[in-house]
Amino acid sequence: MTLHDQNGSVVVAVDAGGTKVLGALVRPDGSLVREHALPSRKDPGSQVTLRVVSALAASAAADGLTITGAGCGFPEYVRDGRLTAREVLDWTEQPGDLIAAALPGVPVTVESDVRCGALAEARMGAGRGARSVLYLSWGTGLSSTLVLDGVCVTGRRGEAIALGELGVPSEVDSRWRGNLERYASGLGIAERFAAMTGLALPGAREVMALLTPEADAAGAAAAREVVKSAGLAVGTVASWLVSLLDPDVVVLGGGLGTSGSVVTAIAAERFTALNARRPCGPPMLPAALGSRAGLLGAALTALDGCGEPASRPTGGPL
């Protein structure tokens, strides 16, 4: 997609997460003009989002900027611009309705946050130039999206993002009965480490910090086991998806996916080994846009809202 510069025009982009809602005013060339963030743990996600959008609208008015669209990414299932789940944040109202009321006359698009990140990486980041991009978001949770010709495939119900709902390969852990997200996500790594040691840590980064010669022997041993198995599981499942989807490139996004840490190295090594049998297997690349991928993708959905859609449905109505 070509971003056409227009004097004084911006779109509102929102990237809502489990801990904060980050918003920005973004010019058509992709540059960020102003940002605003609020924590999202204590209040309903829809109300926090509305406050962020209202603050950005006030900033745009003060700076003489015209808002031409709004794009928002949320960590839930989304279909046709409507949230269909409340698994991460406590939504009391559809945020798209609230934003449309706060920005009268401005087109508003609502998408899943992983599709926003995937869209940005496919069009502007590590997957740029590839016809098909498999984007894996590996952070506190686990999700994925396939992007074809710069457009996200949503699935019939908007649920073609549920990487974390897959099982854990038996060759990695035959005893595990939960899903992949509870095993290998940042939260899952911390939970499994706590179950083994009784030591509660916030997330995967803190667990990996124990992989040092100075760490307690028992804690370090448990950390090595949990981190290695998580990396093997993600690398193996990524190779499964390649077998099904045959993408040009696999992009690892999210906090863990872009961390360059030992767990991503293990996943990449496993993925490469399993794909060695393919004569031209796709590479696994770290996302190039970092923490701004979600915001930039949300901005792209807003710009697409004035033209081509950001997501391609793959089925009829329920």
Automatic annotation (TrEMBL):
It comes from Nonomuraea roseola. It comes from the Bacteria. Belongs to the ROK (NagC/XylR) family. Pfam families: ROK. SUPFAM superfamilies: Actin-like ATPase domain. Coiled coil: none annotated. InterPro entries: ATPase_NBD, ROK. This is ROK family protein. The lineage of its organism: Bacteria, Bacillati, Actinomycetota, Actinomycetes, Streptosporangiales.
